[in-house]
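Last lecture ended with a question: if I hand you only a sequence, what can you say about the shape of the protein? Today we answer it with a concrete record. The protein is NADPH-flavin oxidoreductase. Below, first the input exactly as provided, then the predicted structure, then a couple of comments.
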Amino acid sequence: MNDVIETILSHRSIRAFKDTEISSEQLDCVLQAGIAASSSSLMQVVSVIRVTDKNKRTELARLAGNQAYVETAAEFLVFCIDYQRHYTLNPEVRPEFTELTLIGAIDAGIMAQNCLLAAESMGLGGVYIGGLRNSPNEVDALLGLPQHTAVMFGLCLGVPDQHPELKPRLSPEVIVHENQYQPLDVDKVKAYDEVMQAYYQARSENVKQQGWSDQVTKKLSQESRPFILDYLNRKGLARQ
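The predicted structure:
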């Protein structure tokens, strides 16, 4: 096992950071790693907004559901779908196609994961902030996003001030299928539920009496952010 794989397999979401800055050299490496990520047809349809204004950080923390680490992390990056640069080059560009919105969301995730892995390889830590989509119109206005550009998520980065337990994942036997989709082996999920129950009961913070399947099926049984499509439509995205 090499250092890259060890870094990947050691991933933990970090929500407590030391009051230590990330050097400009480290930040540049993180961003360059993100820009080097795969891009569909080299369209490069992602923009990253580095938020350094303290007042904006405070407001973003509130809009994201009062997640304090948005305000306290050394760096906070916001990843956005961005077809405005392409539209500026040629107004015949059609950003409203749903496939292009999917490409933008996929490429944003790929870029951000490169950024986080680069940061973790340098001893830094981070956590993604999907909560920005709780109030997408307000976040959009705060960051001055133009038409054909939409907020996807944020990423806190900093020097970790915690070492949370490694969260177990589903087995490859459940996730990986060969040649065609296979029926779910419920017994393997039940075994994973037992592992997660033990993890939740043993961890040092936010102890729970819950398995994975109950947790996720409850979450998926109700609509989440029903206003997102209207937001994307307003930004000239995901219309067709």
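Comments.
1. Residues 98-121 form the longest helix (24 residues).
2. The chain has two domains: 3-163+223-234, 172-218.
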